[in-house]
Amino acid sequence: MRLLLLSNSTQYGRGYLEHALATVTGFLPEGARLAFVPYALADHDTYTARVRGALAPSGIEVRGVHEDGDPLAALGAADAVFVGGGNSFRLLCALYRTGLREALAEAVRGGLPYMGASAGTNMAAPSLRTTNDMPIVQPPSFAALGLVPFQINPHYLDPDPDSTHKGETREERLTEFLEENDVPVLGLREGSWLRVADGRAGLGGERPARLFCRGEAPRELAPGTDVSELLAVRAEFDIRG
């Protein structure tokens, strides 16, 4: 499989995908026909137009999977797929409803390059359980695509030592997840990403990632770190002790 999993598609002070554009265009086949999955946002046409505007100057032809009324055919005609960010629950619901959940997993395991951002990166994990989103809709299951065997937390946010907010920090929420499940969680800060190819996985971008494993202190991983060992983990959900 070939995966590019971005924490975010828009970086503060930059245009859409601008912070990762060289990586994105290097990942996608030259002149690719890119199937874009816009279901994480409500306005599919406007979302698709935004992606098209960002990638057209690089010679990438973007087509929304919704545009011709047959998402499966659109996926089948593509050279690569991009699953955009937004609300992860709404996105997963749509993948189930359209049949794309199964079709995407099969196509990507068969060699179709997969790019995700935010919610689209969440979809690459086994489960939706480590997303930051509000469940505005109820998918049939939390089971996502399972392209990697570990969890990812895009937009990972460090605690603000000057904040008076008394709610749980992101680290506390992920620690709670690990109390009930035994599967690593890779926290991707904004501006960072994970690339998977040829059985190897590595971190890229501007900022380090944070790795959470059950029974261990969180670890900081610098950009460029090889994290291929995560591809061999076995996820166990709904366990205690």
UniProtKB/TrEMBL annotation:
CDD domains: GAT1_Peptidase_E. GO terms for biological process: proteolysis. One of its GO terms (cellular component) is cytoplasm. It holds the Pfam family Peptidase_S51. The keyword Aminoacyl-tRNA synthetase does not apply. It catalyses: Dipeptidase E catalyzes the hydrolysis of dipeptides Asp-|-Xaa. It does not act on peptides with N-terminal Glu, Asn or Gln, nor does it cleave isoaspartyl peptides. It is an enzyme of class 3 (hydrolase). It is found in: Cytoplasm. Its EC number is 3.4.13.21. GO terms for molecular function: dipeptidase activity; serine-type peptidase activity. The active site is at S118 (charge relay system), D133 (charge relay system), H155 (charge relay system). Keywords: Cytoplasm, Dipeptidase, Hydrolase, Protease, Serine protease. InterPro entries: Class_I_gatase-like, Peptidase_S51, Peptidase_S51_dipeptidase-E. NCBIfam families: PRK05282.1. Belongs to the peptidase S51 family. HAMAP family: Peptidase_E (MF_00510). Hydrolyzes dipeptides containing N-terminal aspartate residues. May play a role in allowing the cell to use peptide aspartate to spare carbon otherwise required for the synthesis of the aspartate family of amino acids. This is Peptidase E. It comes from Streptomyces tagetis.
